[in-house]
């Protein structure tokens, strides 16, 4: 194994850990057996384009002011990036109809309109109350078993004239997060890890950092009796106890999946976890090919 290959094995992102949390056997096939297959699709293309637009808008807002952000041609920016990402997945063999493209494109325009609306900007991103620390801020820290954790934080803001920070992760969703998604460890553990690593890397007390998911919905429910917003902000519990539990679980993953020298532990068991109604198998590239999806006993 080359030094470059070893270096890749020694760096763990949250997406890798998330795979392990949902189904250890899929993680084993993806990483230990090196059978991982990229799963780019219209949803990932859409999410990438939305992130691009939001991050450009927030950079202009906090670095140049409200006027500069308002002058950005956000829909044009979205279309250029979306077309670029769609072209990539089509070249990779993903079939995409014009109807699918148009549906996602117009959903994107609706989301951008809601995001840039003045009342929402003032509510979620008050320009005078915060300053921008970073966009796509890299976080990397050495842990145990010769493994580094690496991640990129979508947005970090600092409260003006105060040592208080907001770590924000942008998510796109079909209809927003329900109560089950809000308690899904494979989601909220991401911000717990980011908060812990940011605290250690930049010597910021844990209690000076707030974390939140900024979720935008592609669809609103038809005939709803209640007002709806395409924006949903969710702040997971992120006190010291919650952070400690997530860190301990992550360390447990490193102990289970890696040897002391950073190589994968091929001798441990990695059970299959199909989930209720085999939800973990729905988009798994291994399902019915090399995995029968029968839960491990």
Please give a structural write-up:
- The model has no long low-confidence stretch (mean pLDDT 91).
- The chain has 11 helices and 6 strands.
- The two termini are 34 Å apart.
- The longest helix has 22 residues.
- α4 runs parallel beside α7 and α10 crosses α11.
- The chain is 46% helix and 16% strand.
- Strands 1, 2, 3, 4, 5 and 6 form a 6-stranded mixed β-sheet that branches.
- By secondary structure, the protein is of the alpha/beta class.
- A hairpin with a 5-residue loop joins β2 and β3.
The amount of helix comes to: 40-55%
The succession of helices and strands, N to C, reads HEHHHHHHHEEEHHEEH
- Globular, elongated, flat, extended or rod-shaped: what is the shape? globular
Uncertain runs: none
| Average pLDDT number | 91
Q: The biggest beta sheet, please? A: 6 strands, mixed
N- to C-terminal distance? 34 Å
Number of helical segments with 4 or more residues? 11
Tell me the fraction of residues in β-strands, as a range: 15-25%
Pairing-aware structural class of the strands and helices? alpha/beta
**Cα gyration radius (Å):** 20 Å
Extended strand count: 6
């Amino acid at each position: 194994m080359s030094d470059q290959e070893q270096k890749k094995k020694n760096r763990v992102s949250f997406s890798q850990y998330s795979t392990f949390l949902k189904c250890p056997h899929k993680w084993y096939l993806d990483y230990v057996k090196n059978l991982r297959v990229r799963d780019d699709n219209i949803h990932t293309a859409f999410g990438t384009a939305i992130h691009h637009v939001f991050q450009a808008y927030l950079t202009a807002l906090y670095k140049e002011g409200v006027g500069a952000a308002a002058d950005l041609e956000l829909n044009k920016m979205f279309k250029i990036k979306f077309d670029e990402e769609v072209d990539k997945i089509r070249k990779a063999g993903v079939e995409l109809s014009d109807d699918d493209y148009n549906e996602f494109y117009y959903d994107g325009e609706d989301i951008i309109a809601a995001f840039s609306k003045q009342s929402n900007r003032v509510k979620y991103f008050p320009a005078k109350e915060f300053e921008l620390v970073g966009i796509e801020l890299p976080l990397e820290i050495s842990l145990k078993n010769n493994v580094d954790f690496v991640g990129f934080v979508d947005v970090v803001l600092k409260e003006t004239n105060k040592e208080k920070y907001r770590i924000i992760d942008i998510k796109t969703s079909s209809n927003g997060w329900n109560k089950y998604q809000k308690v899904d460890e494979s989601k909220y553990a991401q911000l717990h890890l980011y908060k812990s690593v940011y605290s250690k890397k930049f010597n910021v007390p844990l209690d000076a950092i707030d974390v939140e998911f900024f979720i935008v919905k592609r669809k609103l429910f038809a005939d709803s009796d209640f007002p709806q917003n395409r924006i949903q902000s969710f702040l997971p519990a992120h006190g010291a106890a919650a952070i400690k539990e997530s860190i301990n679980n992550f360390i447990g993953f490193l102990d289970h999946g890696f040897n002391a020298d950073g190589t994968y532990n091929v001798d441990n068991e990695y059970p299959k976890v199909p989930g209720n109604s085999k939800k973990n198998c729905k988009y798994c590239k291994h399902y019915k090919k090399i995995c029968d999806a029968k839960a491990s006993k």
